[in-house]
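Researcher: We're teaching a course module on how sequence relates to structure. For the next exercise, students receive a sequence and then see the predicted structure as tokens, so they can try to spot secondary structure elements on their own. Here is the exercise chain.
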Amino acid sequence: MNTRAVLFDLDGTLVDTIDLYTEAYITALQLQGSIMDEARFIADVYTNGLSLRDVMALLSMDPAHEPRIRETRDTLYIELLSTRTEWLPHAEEILEAVGRQRLSGIMTGSHRSYTDAIHTRLRLYDKTATVVTEDDIESRMKPDPYGLLLAAKNVGAPPEECVYVGDQLFDVQAARAAGMHACLVPNATTPARAHEEADIVFDDLRSVLTLL
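Model: And here is the predicted structure for the students to work with:
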């Protein structure tokens, strides 16, 4: 494999934010009188990449409450990110090691306000050449390959010489749609189908260095 660039997903791949996002989201729903437990949130919402509008329809909530729920969720989440975010094991050292040997970047479906909060705590933007967020991709969320292709363009690497490392099925599908090698580093929220569709599966993020 001729690897010129390694691109990473962010949440659940490099940083430990899934519990923080779940907490903020569930709290925002509860404040509007809707209850969703953590297990259902992960299974039905997080791993499927549902929008807030989809979640509200799932819970039969009044669409008029969407702006208030979004504002509450984002305010809570940004506060949690800026104070409690941690790198996942070996993530910081791997990101820095890749950057020394190859081109590196991050493509995430998170808002720029979220990554700004992570940067406040972990100096995220200092660790990699580019960070493409939801704000950059015109709502063309994974598995649409647009964001991955933009990240590859930003670092100056052709897609076929890029590896995209993620933890969810839509990460794998986006990588393959972009013509990149799809590398899965699973966690407790990763669906079984992601293992089947990935080109490469590693149990440990450190194994990414074998691709260089």
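Model: If you want an answer key for the exercise: The mean pLDDT is 97. The first helix runs from residue 18 to 30.
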